[in-house]
Design goal:
The longest helix has 4 residues, at about 125-130. The protein is mostly beta strands. The chain is elongated and about 115 Å long. It has a five-stranded antiparallel β-sheet, with no helix packed on it. It has one helix at about 125-130; strands at about 10, 15-20, 25, 30-35, 70, 75-80, 85-90, 100-105, 135, 135-140, 140, 145-150, 155, 170, 175-180. Strand 3 and strand 4 (about 30-35) form a beta hairpin. The protein is about 0% helix and about 25% strand.
Amino acid sequence: MATGKYAKAISDRSGFEFPYNEMVKEWNGAFVHKSEFEAKHPQLELGIHAADQEGLMNARPDRVENSVAVILKPNPFETIAASSGIINVSEQSHGRSTGDTVRFRGSPSIAGTFANPASFDGITGSNVAKTAGYSITVGKRDSSGNITNTTDFYHFTVDTNTATTGGISGGGENCSAGPATLSA
């Protein structure tokens, strides 16, 4: 009986000659040397696939919440200089962006309306509570034009009034800042 001790074989992968007793057969039927052997990749094995998951019954899309007014701290408005219409507004962690339109309101009434903020430093509360709101710039502005503290302050320029003294805070209690129109 022959043992194949001196027999040679040609690899199907590389075409090189190797000792016959060092050859193996791969999963795809190729006769290769043991140094060239490649096992079958697991992704080639067909597994059992379950059906796709189904959605929840009676699912509803996410609601988009309406913008709401935010209550400001007492006397949140501050003029920056005499003869200037620029007013700084203090609102903690406001998250607003430059160019946003903000409408200011005074205390709410039982009838569902809002009073005007209190007048201060020559600025009338009705001017601050303009129906269309004001386009804001983020940051606290000083009389030199420097802007700081963008997290807790923003400023706007009031339409018709200017400050008489500057550096005066006002507006009263329970003022709010929010969208130009409120809806339920």
